[in-house]
Amino acid sequence: MRFIAAIFSLTLVPAQAAAVDWKVYGTTSVEGGSVCFYDADGVTRTADRHLRVSTKCMLQKDLDGVDITRQFGGKILDNVARKVRDKYTPPIVLVESVNADQALIVMQYEETANLSGIQAHARLLFELNCPEQMTQILSTYVLSDGKESRSDKPGNWQYVAPETNNARLLKILCLAQ
Questions:
Q1: Is-contact 143 119, C-beta < 8 A?
Q2: CATH number of 17-175
Q3: Rounded CA gap, 154 and 165, in Å?
Q4: Count H helices, E strands: the chain?
Q5: How far apart are CA 9 and CA 29, in angstroms?
Q6: Is the pTM higher than 0.90?
Q7: Is 148 in contact with 121 (CB distance < 8 Å)?
Q8: Nearest CA-CA partner of 104 in 90, 86, 94, 114
Q9: Contacting residues for 31 by C-beta, under 8 A, at least 6 apart
Q10: pLDDT (tens digit, 9 = 90+) per residue, 90-141?
């Protein structure tokens, strides 16, 4: 087990002060499972009243591999305890049924995403059109099998299919507006 922990710790980028506030909005089955986050503090409104938001997806095994009691000076555990004390409710509960145990895991993942510096396997910049229920991807970064791919060419506007990560993201952010 120590060997696995040692290998895992090598995959972490040094943690930086949290300049973002990552919130869970969905999961994928990519590479055994990943958790997707949006930057709640970075949501902006464009001149045409659309929303822009940065997202990232991190491998669940990487998130689960963090020892929240020891790594990062115990800050992850302290922050989760503070959220529980303050009766914080993760935004994902606006669109998904989440029990108390799942809410704790969501809080742990959010704090780990904020503090750990784990490499995201996907980063996307979205523009959301709330009234039309459409999204547009403005830029992408994907890391798969050690290979990076990037695009800063905006995609076409697309209607959002129900019960998808994009639908959850749209509902969470458009409800808040």
A1: yes
A2: 2.40.128
A3: 19
A4: 5, 8
A5: 23
A6: no
A7: no
A8: 90
A9: 59, 121, 144
A10: 999 999 999 999 999 999 999 999 998 899 999 999 999 999 999 999 999 9
